[in-house]
Amino acid sequence: VSLSKQQVQHIATLARLQLAEDQFDDVVAKLSSIVDFVDQLQQAPTDDVIPMAHPLNQAQRLRPDAVTECDERDVIQGNAPAVSDGFYLVPKVIE
Amino acid sequence: MAGQDQSLHLLSLADLAKGLSSGDFSSRELVEHLLSRIDGDKSLNAFISVTADEALRVAGECDESRSKGEAAALCGLPVVYKDIFCTKGVLTTCGSRILENFVSPYDATVVERLSAAGAVMLGKTNMDEFAMGSSNETSYFGPVRNPWDTDCAPGGSSGGSAAAVAARLSPAATGTDTGGSIRQPAALTNTVGLKPTYGRVSRYGMIAFASSLDQAGVITRTAEDAAMLLAVMAGFDERDSTCLDHPLGDYVGGLNASLKGRKVGIVQQHFDEGLDEQCAARVKDALKALEQQGAELIDVDLPNLDLSVPTYYVVAPAECSSNMSRFDGVRFGHRAKDAEDLFDLYCRSRGEGFGAEVKRRIMTGTYVLSAGYYDAYYLKAQKVRQLISQDFNNAFEKVDVIAGPTTPTPAFKLGEKTDDPVTMYLNDIYTIGANLAGLPGISVPCGFVNDLPVGLQLVGPHFAEESILACAHQYQQLTDWHMHCPEAYR
């Protein structure tokens, strides 16, 4: 399997990644080599094998549904690129 | 005292603890000495941040506590953190442009526990971007150089941690290991690298790459030092839902367990083509040394070993693509300027913020999880992962530990493998299995090839940290490879 340019562009769109025009061919080539490499998995006989969900076969632990965090909005928003009145700012979504 | 100061950097963590406790030197003196070595080193690029002022302040506090007879387990001992661990009020970049200015609002559990035990942070170490790499060349902050040969890579992704410990800039460092990122750089820099069982150490505050594989551990110069740190770091943490509530081993107390009668598994495929012949010779010498101390060498088979790297490069990128989706240019991290709309903001913030390897892994992961490919790749890989895990379970019915090489070759040149991701990935062929199966592993120095270090890897069953640490410690009582220090850093 070698990936086409169109496929790679579709993947990049799904992943919300802009790829530089001049690096695009390189990305296609390297991604294809990775996909070719992992394709050898197809040879492995895995009928009746249960896919692994956890390395120690443990179930997800649950905790009581109780608020444990304190209000640290200002500290946390200190890392945000753009905030106003406690809100995160993004480009206009609704006209 | 001045004369003694000159060699403090050569002492192990255990010896430094003794020196502090008997008052031979203070934590402040020790920290000043190491900070001046870090400051004086211009060639390795092992650090992203050096927290000198805070280190001196904490060291002073530790000295004071000690004078009052209140010394915690690691009181006044220096440590450096891989820059993947969140440190409150300190830059935490994960080696990425996208987190170039991120100051963590909280401490990782590992940091919290080590600090509470009195460890003094000297700084944050360089790493492959988001721990995705095997050479430390994917860091936004430039590659780390190997103290044994500065034209060579130190390995990765915990390359800065390994280089700092190898160059005696710090006696100990934390690391994370998703596919070999502690053990491989330890092997390439003549240090000890311990990756505990999946879930043994909390992942809270450790920036996630592949959540079912990531595990925090340490890089030190001796197994004894690794045991001292693990004893503090390990244990249940309710803030990490995958952290396991399982009794701790007696990591330090168990170190003196003899090798006599210990069943050591040898995997013939480890010595097939792909392994450098001279590395093979060093590893076989090490196995002989274990045997001479009464260990019994037993052949075991890991029939799906060859599939471990392709399995990993489906599972890890899949989890990576999910974890990396939190970087959106909105809540934290790099944000592209003058975005036209929200879609443009996401695409360009991420396009500008992530490096080439991280983008490749996100895209590989996105592909294997996408409609029409999920069963063929992701589900298939999780089935093969089950087979690989069963291979280990079968082997551990016959043996206590599996021993072999950590890496196929000694350190490689910077730039040598950057053009071919698959060749780079194959560097982790011997280490990845332990991550897929969630097993503990340790790499220990076992000799040199052309003046470059070689590592012996010991892998144990789940929660067998005490046993593999004891094996490694006993081996280090027989050999002095770990005492070898790169000439420029003595």
Task: Record the SSE blueprint.
The complex is a heterodimer of chains A (95) and B (490).
Chain A: H1 5-14, H2 24-38, H3 73-77, E1 83-84, E2 87-88
Antiparallel strand pairs in A: 1-2
Chain B: H1 2-5, H2 13-21, H3 27-40, E1 47-50, H4 52-67, E2 78-82, H5 109-116, E3 120-125, H6 159-166, E4 173-176, H7 183-189, E5 192-195, E6 216-220, H8 223-233, E7 263-267, H9 277-292, E8 296-300, H10 308-323, H11 342-353, H12 356-369, H13 374-395, E9 401-405, H14 421-425, H15 432-437, E10 441-449, E11 452-459, H16 465-478
Parallel strand pairs in B: 2-3, 7-8, 7-9
Antiparallel strand pairs in B: 1-3, 4-6, 5-6, 5-10, 9-11, 10-11
From the alpha-carbon coordinates, what is the Rg of chain B to the nearest angstrom? 21 Å
Number of DSSP-assigned strands of chain A: 2
Strand content of chain B: 5-15%
The 3D shape of chain B can be described as globular
Q: What structural class should be given to the helix and strand makeup of chain A?
A: mainly alpha
* Overall outline of chain A: flat
Chain oligomer state: heterodimer
For the termini of chain A, the CA-CA separation is: 43 Å
Helix content of chain B: 25-40%
Structure class of chain B: alpha/beta
Order of the strands making up the biggest sheet of chain A: 1-2
